[in-house]
Amino acid sequence: MNRHAAREKAFQILFQLDINDNEPKQAIAEFLESEENDAFLTLLVEGVASHKTELDEIISENLENWSLQRIASVEKTIIRIAAFEMKYLEDIPVNVSINEAVELANTYGDDKSGKFINGVLSKINK
């Protein structure tokens, strides 16, 4: 599985975890069923889940005229993944993390999601 596909599946799993309080390993296994697990997918899901509080603080500090509670779950999940990559995965260029997040937002969010996510992540990157 390529990294783009892994990010997309990680987004779907983390979105479910935000709604249902499962363990990350269990959620990955249930989501993938017979598909082979991917190391990058596991790293993203477990990393975001274990650093969720810290990531939410980083996101909250970089929001203008918004609170974390007001952000829709789709956008919040996408921003968490990108923020995790930016903070903890040094082998991924920041612009790649931002571009991938914007692509996910354009696929799963509304018309303004990509622009909003780009703005928040650019502020986090400063």
TrEMBL record:
A GO BP annotation: transcription antitermination
One cellular component (GO) term of this entry: cytosol
Keyword Transcription regulation listed: yes
Keywords tagged on the record: RNA-binding, Transcription, Transcription antitermination, Transcription regulation
MF term (GO), any: RNA binding
Entry coiled-coil feature ranges: none
Domain NusB/RsmB/TIM44 span(s) in chain numbering: 4-126
Top-level taxonomic group: Bacteria
Keyword Cell division: no
Pfam families membership: NusB
HAMAP family assigned: NusB
Family named by the database record: Belongs to the NusB family.
PANTHER family, per database record: ANTITERMINATION NUSB DOMAIN-CONTAINING PROTEIN (PTHR11078:SF3), N UTILIZATION SUBSTANCE PROTEIN B-RELATED (PTHR11078)
Job description of the protein: Involved in transcription antitermination. Required for transcription of ribosomal RNA (rRNA) genes. Binds specifically to the boxA antiterminator sequence of the ribosomal RNA (rrn) operons.
Protein name per Swiss-Prot or TrEMBL: Transcription antitermination protein NusB
Organism for this UniProt entry: Oceanobacillus picturae
Lineage: Bacteria, Bacillati, Bacillota, Bacilli, Bacillales
Gene: nusB
